[in-house]
Amino acid sequence: IVPYYVMVAVSNYQEISQTYTNIENGHSFPLKYYTAPFLVSEVTTAVSIIPSALDAFIHYFGDYPFKDELYGMTQIGYPHAAIETQTNAIMGGLTSGWQETMVHELSHMWFANSITNETWQHIWLNEGFATYAEALYYRYTGNSSHNDEAAYLSHLKSMSYRFESTRTLYREDDSDFTSLFQYFYYHKGAWLLHMLRGYINNDPLFFDILKSYAQDAQFKYGHSDSETFREYIEDKTDMDFETFFDQWLYDISFPNYQYNYMQAEGLTGVTLMQTQGSDPSKPDVFEMFMEIKFNFNDGTNRIERVFNNKQTQTFYFEFEAGKTISSINLDPNDWILREAITRNTNLTVDPPPFRRWKGTVSDNWNLSANWDFGVPDAQTDAIIRTGAPHYPKITGDVSVKSLTIEPGALVEHQEGTFTIGGQFHLKSTHDYNSSFISTGGSLVVEPDSVKIYQPISNPAYNYAMSSPVSGPLATKTKSGITGNTYTYYNPLNNFKLMADDEQFEPGKGFVFKNSAPVVFSGKINRGTYIQPLIRSQKGKGWNLVGNPYTAAIDWTQLTNKVNVDDSFWLFRNELGLYGVYNNPSGTSVNLPADPHIIPTRHAIWVRVNIEETAGSITFSPSALRPHTHNYLKSSSAAKYPYIKLAVDFNNNRDELAIALIPENKYNEASYKGSSKYFSNNSLYCEVYSLSNGESMAINNLPLLQTISVPLGISNLSKGEAVFSISDAQLPDYTTVVLLDNHNYELTELRSGGNYSVMLENTGKQNERFELIISQSSSTATEDIKLDETNNNKMPLMVFSEQDKIIVLISGLNKARYSLYDLSGRMLEEGELLNNSRNTISAPGKGVFLLKLGGETGSSTYKVSF
After folding, report:
1. DSSP code of 334?
2. 769-804: buried (b, 16+ CB within 10 Å) or exposed (e) per residue?
3. Could you count the other beta carbons within 10 Å of the beta carbon of residue 557?
4. CATH no. for residue 850?
5. Are 783 and 746 in a shared domain?
6. Number of structural domains in the chain
7. 83, 113, 143 — which closes off a domain?
8. What SS3 state is found at 125?
9. Where would I find the beta strands (DSSP E) of 23-153?
10. 15-22 long-range contacts, CB within 8 A, separation 24+
11. Residue 863 is assigned to a structural domain of this protein
12. Which CA distances in Å does 619 have to 197, 437, 529?
């Protein structure tokens, strides 16, 4: 029990006894009130607010600390008494005029009796919390949603003693007991908590902190002090509140703001100035987040949030074209303890420390009309925005403090010395790159000031890239690549792991995975680079090279390609396939407009002519072109590999999904799928997979080398059903085949194929189809001929399954097999059954060659165990 508030009251009391039950936690305990007999009726009416006050405080602060006892109040003859004696508050009155005091003393059960300030120096932890609880009571009870901000703020703004400007909230000398309980500690303490809510700017987090603090075993039924409370909220928010507490707890006064604003050149500048007066004991600056409300002539408004930490500070904002400001309100929601804010039209609004390119007139860098607020110089930052009618060309000496080129924007440096004193940022999005074309003159910028950004949209994908910078900073580690990074090695047809400090080579491609954006720093590549190329028996003629520049290059302008096929292959992550450009015919597949353009930082595959053993490709700045597209984007990242199978029927599509969970993570209980909910709509052919006899819309399965999934369909009308893959993120070299067990037809779907079947019967057909997802099969060059009417129809499929070789045969008569080891020794041979699943036992671990023959030809498969 709290020992400093103990009291015995004796009188001819009449007890008013009730029971309180909380709907949130179900706790129930007695309520007892002691008053004079002649006041029973009036008191009974007045104390009717206590259950709703308990509802509010249990909602905000958690369980009532003394729920195993009771809550009560006792009226005494001293008219000014209000003391939070534990579980039974002493009150000078219990009639309606005392209701706000009743709320205050009730909240002390949490903050004073359960958590007590360590010393009276921290009295605000008792009285400030209890006074703030009054505002929360009005917020909770003000409306049925328990979020009446107007009632909450109205009560806080009624606390006039918060404006005391000569004392600190922390009471250094607490020896004089008679001066402890002054309204200043109540009111400013409540406002400190209100400002803390605004500073955190996250209501769920703030209210969670209030509740967890009140219930934390570190404090409950114990003590706390100001620094411990500060450390507690810092731990919960991962924010630094040292300055906040220094200025509001340990320092005096509060801020006085003046402001002015100016709207010009597409920007609005707002200058804030704090004027706390000439008293040197008052802080010059209160560092706070400030909300600025912009009211526009069209009746709309917008609130922006800035951090004000200087006595005079200007902030800049950009609004949509045509938005004219009619007025501004600072701190419109009253998050700061302050005086009234006034506009001072004599306050200077300085132009911004940056200049933004408009390009409305021409591409002339030195023309003032092309910039917001004039041409930048060595003391100002330059920003090149996307969407300008013209982009700047530098043809003479130019100096800027820093340069930022936004995604989709371009700067061309043709002549002169271009000096960037600070940082050089080339920004990118998943779809667009910024471009810097430097074909002449000299560039002066520190290598560690260069920041070239490449977002990573899907950490599961391999990214084939080339570095636009070189030197000691151009390494995987310094670029923020945490995953393994590889270059391709043609003689062995494999990928070589790069060392962490191995420098990127201009014009050479590399492959990596990463979970975070990549930022290249170093010396920007501006020269001519020759990449030697190799053709070997193992690697054939394939070589991985890349665009070494900060802008796109035109393949047709790379004129010095020696012994190289005049084509390139570029993997498109968003499609999951290669785009190919053939220069002799000017033909491309899977590439959009301007297919001959290779975007900045992209790696490409090239091939040495079949009759040569070596070649080279020369990258030259003369091939640089303005182009901002980016093929390095990926479709949205999924947690695990997946495939979506679609069935189109009467122009309506139904889908199922199969997620493939890594085997070391998978267990059926943790990764339960979602059952199929049938619409029984005759316009659809509904498709589902089967798992343990259950129809599944989403089936989560372990990611094995080969997995076979039984499928079913449900159709209430007849018609044509077309099966296809609508979306997939699968490991490389995965084959997806649909097997129709009615006619044993095999259709390969991964390459964009589909399977069409006429449904002559209605109803459900469980296990008619089978989806085979395999990472284990590969074919040689001589293939058994496919059905000329359907290139995706497969006469056979080969894959490994545990210690078996599985051969599915569809429409291939007189099929035979021969099994060899890699030395060419035949291990086994035999016949294969048509329209069947054939199983061949593997001779053991290793790699084997399986030769299959039939009436239409033969194929050889490499199978490994």
Report:
1. -
2. bbbbbbbbbeeeeeebeeeeeeebbbbbbbbbbeee
3. 12
4. 2.60.40.3080
5. no
6. 7
7. 113
8. helix
9. 28-35, 71-75, 82-83, 88-91, 115-117
10. 16/40, 16/43, 16/44, 16/47, 20/50, 20/51, 20/54, 20/71, 22/54, 22/55, 22/58, 22/64
11. yes
12. 57, 14, 5
- What confidence score (pLDDT) does residue 779 get? 44
Q: What is the CATH number of the domain that holds 287?
A: 2.60.40.1840
Structural domain that includes position 395? 354-445
Specify whether 737 is located in the same domain as 759: yes
Cβ-Cβ contacts under 8 Å for 153 (sequence gap 6 or more): 135, 333, 334
- The tokens for 234 are 């810092």
Q: Are residues 566 and 670 in the same domain?
A: no
Helix axes 203-215, 226-237, angle to 10 degrees: 130
Say how many CA atoms lie within 13 Å of 81 toward its Cβ.
Answer: 19
Q: Any idea of the CA torsion for 263, 376, 455, 464, to the nearest 10 degrees?
A: 150
Cα distances (Å, whole numbers) of residue 428 to 454, 513, 531, 550: 6, 18, 27, 11
Give CA 768 to chain center in angstroms: 42
Same domain, yes or no: 323 and 397: no
Per-residue pLDDT reduced to its tens digit, 771-788: 988 875 444 434 444 444
By the 8 A CB rule, do 375 and 361 touch? no
> Average model confidence (pLDDT) for the chain?
90
Give the strand order in the sheet containing 267-274: 312-317, 267-274, 257-264, 342-343
How many CA atoms lie less than 13 Å away from 825 in the CB half-sphere? 5
CA distances from 612 to 454, 531, 534, 541 (A): 36, 16, 9, 9
126 within 8 A of 117, measured Cβ to Cβ: yes
Cα distance between residue 340 and residue 351, in whole Å = 27
| Edge-to-edge strands, sheet with 71-75 | 14-21, 28-35, 71-75, 88-91, 82-83
Q: Identify the helix (H) or strand (E) that includes residue 192.
A: helix 183-200
Confidence (pLDDT) at 438: 95
Structure-block tokens of residue 466: 């080339």
**Does 458 reside within a domain?**
no
Res 650: pLDDT: 87
- pLDDT of 631: 65
Can you tell me the distance from the alpha carbon of 721 to that of 713, in angstroms, rounded to the nearest whole number? 10
Same domain, yes or no: 276 and 207: no
Instruction: Tell whether 214 and 271 lie within a shared domain.
Output: no
Q: Which H or E run contains 435? A: strand 435-438
CB atoms inside a 10 Å sphere around CB 498: 20
Asked whether residue 784 is assigned to any structural domain, the reply reads yes
The closest of 176, 191, 67, 53 to 127, measured between CA atoms, is 191
Q: Are 544 and 508 in contact (CB under 8 A)?
A: yes
Task: State how far the Cα of 725 lies from the Cα of 450, in Å rounded to an integer.
Answer: 43
Cα angle value 727/732/736 (rounded, 5°): 55
Distance CA 182, CA 462 (A): 66
Q: Is 98 left (phi over 0), alpha (psi -120 to 50) or beta?
A: alpha
Note whether 425 and 403 are within 8 A (CB).
yes
The stretches in the chain having pLDDT less than 50 are: 634-638, 777-791
> Last residue of a domain, which of 185, 220, 252?
252
Question: pLDDT by residue (tens digit) across 650-664?
Answer: 888 888 888 888 888
Q: What is the distance between the alpha carbons of residues 255 and 283, in angstroms, rounded to a whole number?
A: 8
Judgement on whether residues 479 and 388 belong to the same structural domain of the protein:
no
CATH number, domain containing residue 79: 3.30.2010.30
**Does a structural domain hold residue 855?**
yes
Global pTM value: 0.61
- Let me know whether 46 and 135 are in one domain: no
Give Cα 18 to chain centroid, integer Å.
Answer: 51
